[in-house]
Amino acid sequence: MNTTTMFYVGIDVSKDKSDICIKDVNGNEMIQRFKITNNKADLGHLYETIERIKSKIPGKSDVVFGMEATGIYSLPLYSSLKRDGHKVKLYNPIQTNGFRKMNIRKTKTDPIDSAVIADMLRFSEPPQVSELQDFPMKNISPPLQPANSLYHHNNKISKL
Fold it and tell me: Is 85 left (phi over 0), alpha (psi -120 to 50) or beta?
C-alpha cells in the first residue's frame, strides 16, 4: 500500500524570528520546537531539519506549512516557501485565536502558537493551498521602512 506520511509545520512569525513546530498526522511533535531567524541561512536550516525528519520515515512523505497572515512579517517567509515549491496555508489571526481558545489552557506564547497552527493544519480539510494573488514575491529581508511610516503617510492623507 502506498501511503504518504504527512508532516505539518506550524510557524508563528514575528519581526525578527519565527517559532517552528513540526507535527505528524497524530499530533506527535517530530522534534522539539525551535526558532529560526528570518533569513535565508535559517530557512535552509528549517529545510534541512524537515529533510532529516523525512529521511527517518519509510515511504513517501509530504509537508504542509501554515502561518498567520501578519502582513510585512509573514510575506517574506510565505513568498520564500512558495518560491521553493512548498504548500503554504495562511490563517487569519482571528482564526488561530479562536482555535487556541478551544483548548482548556489559555496560555499564549509564540512556541504554543506554532503548535496551534500545526494542529489547525492537521484538523483542516486536505490543504487547499492559499495563494496571494497579484502580490510581488518578496525575499527574506528586513522591512525597508519603519512601521510608523504608514502612520505618517496616513496622517498626511487625512490632513488633505
Answer: left
Beta-ladder partners of 16: none
Q: Residue 131: which H helix or E strand, with range?
A: none
For residues 91 and 120, the answer to whether their CB atoms sit within 8 Å is yes
Instruction: Give the pTM.
Output: 0.74
> By C-alpha distance, which of 84, 80, 114, 72 is closest to 96?
114
DSSP type of residue 140: S
Three-state DSSP state, 129 = coil
> Phi/psi of residue 71, each to 5°?
65, -125
Which H, E and C letters describe 21-45, residue by residue? Answer: EEEECCCCECCCCEEEECCHHHHHH
Q: Which three cell numbers stand for residue 53?
A: 525528519
Q: Which phi-psi region, left, alpha or beta, contains residue 10 (left: φ > 0; alpha: ψ -120 to 50)?
A: beta
Residue-range domain boundaries for the chain: 4-159
Q: How far apart are alpha carbons 10 and 46 in whole angstroms?
A: 12
Q: What is the pLDDT of residues 52-97, one digit of tens each?
A: 999 998 889 999 999 988 888 889 999 999 999 999 999 888 888 7
Cα atoms in the Cβ-side hemisphere of radius 13 Å centred on 65: 26
Say which CATH class 4-159 falls into. alpha beta
